[in-house]
Specification:
alpha/beta, Rossmann fold, 6 helices
Amino acid sequence: MSKILIEVKNLVKRFNNVEVIKNLDLNFYAGDRIALIGQNGAGKTTLIRCILGLYTYEGHLSVLNKSPRTEREKVLQEVGFVPQLPPPLKMTVQEIIDFFSIIAQTDLEKFYEISEALKLDVKKHIHKPFLKLSGGMKQKLLVSLALARNPKILLMDEPSANLDPDAREVLFNYLKKLPEDTLMILSSHRVDEIEDLVNRLIEMDLGKVVIDKKLTIQNSL
């Protein structure tokens, strides 16, 4: 059996005494290519944020045998993440690239290769504040940085949001080429466009897993 990279046991997350995640038990393995689906409010983004150490929670959650709360820096060195909505980073493009290259050990040569393939002219916008970029440019920058890190775990929340059709195709081609042991979790409402990328489908509803099944990549859904 493949190695467990993320282990979840009896996970509970509450907001104002409302349980958004309810006693969740779930393992994510090396080599999993997961479509994480569900309606708004199902708990998908909350689970991802718990994995990233952004939220406190009850129960057990380990990422690469580490706590995302108490060992967050070590966890994030191995995790690439692209959020659904770009964060309000008060940095220039250059500062973001410098930060990722040093802190997150990003391969800048690969970063420029990916950004060029996505038709993002990084050098043209190098001194611009991140907040001044268009939604599509922000997404392309974050995607390029996440993929260039060659992470053990790749989390993407609505990865094709704000991307034009050509950029989506480039993104999905890179996802197909991930190392075999990479754990990839794609949270998406558009399951049809990622069906040839995934080998496991997890559907959440009201904080619980209602479907968890293996798939065969290529026209599997």
